[in-house]
Write a sequence for this structure.
C-alpha cells in the first residue's frame, strides 16, 4: 500500500547526489563542488566553507571541522534562514560522506531562529528531505546539503 502514491514529489526533490553536486527533480543541476540549500520550494547553491566568518582558526578558510571534531559554519552561511518567512520547522543537514556532530554554537544559532536540526550523511539527508517534503510540504522542511565528494582540507 503506497500512502503517498498520489502526492506529487516537490520540484526541489533530490534525484541524485554526486561527488561534485546534485541533480534536482525539476532538471536543475548544481555542480562545481557547491552544496545546495533547499528552502521554501527554492534551490540555492551553497558553499558554507567560503562564507565570511567560516573556517576553523589555524586550519584555513575551507575548514569546517573544529578542534573538537565538530562541524561548524559561521552565521553568514545561514543568511537566508534569517530572512525567509515562514521559517521551516526542520533543517536537515547533510554533511557529505560522513556524519559529524555539529558545534554547539552552530546548533544554538539555528535553534535560535526557531528551527530544529537533524544531522545526517548527505545521501540519507537527501532521502529524508524528499520524503518529508512530500509528506509535510516544502514550507515545513528545509535541507542544507554538502556534496558527497567534499573533503576537509588537510592542514
Amino acid at each position: 500500500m503506497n500512502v503517498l502514491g498520489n502526492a506529487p514529489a516537490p520540484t526541489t526533490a533530490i534525484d541524485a547526489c554526486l561527488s561534485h553536486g546534485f541533480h534536482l527533480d525539476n532538471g536543475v543541476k548544481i555542480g562545481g563542488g557547491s552544496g545546495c540549500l533547499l528552502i521554501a520550494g527554492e534551490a540555492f547553491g551553497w558553499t558554507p566553507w567560503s562564507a565570511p566568518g567560516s573556517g576553523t582558526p589555524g586550519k584555513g578558510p575551507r575548514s569546517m571541522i573544529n578542534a573538537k571534531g565538530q562541524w561548524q559554519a559561521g552565521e553568514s552561511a545561514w543568511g537566508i534562514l534569517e530572512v525567509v518567512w515562514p521559517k521551516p520547522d526542520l533543517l536537515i543537514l547533510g554533511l557529505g560522506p560522513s556524519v559529524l556532530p555539529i558545534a554547539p554554537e552552530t546548533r544554538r544559532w539555528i535553534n535560535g531562529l526557531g528551527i530544529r536540526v537533524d544531522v545526517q550523511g548527505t545521501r540519507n539527508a537527501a532521502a529524508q528531505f524528499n520524503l518529508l517534503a512530500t509528506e509535510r510540504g516544502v514550507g515545513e522542511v528545509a535541507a542544507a546539503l554538502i556534496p558527497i565528494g567534499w573533503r576537509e582540507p588537510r592542514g
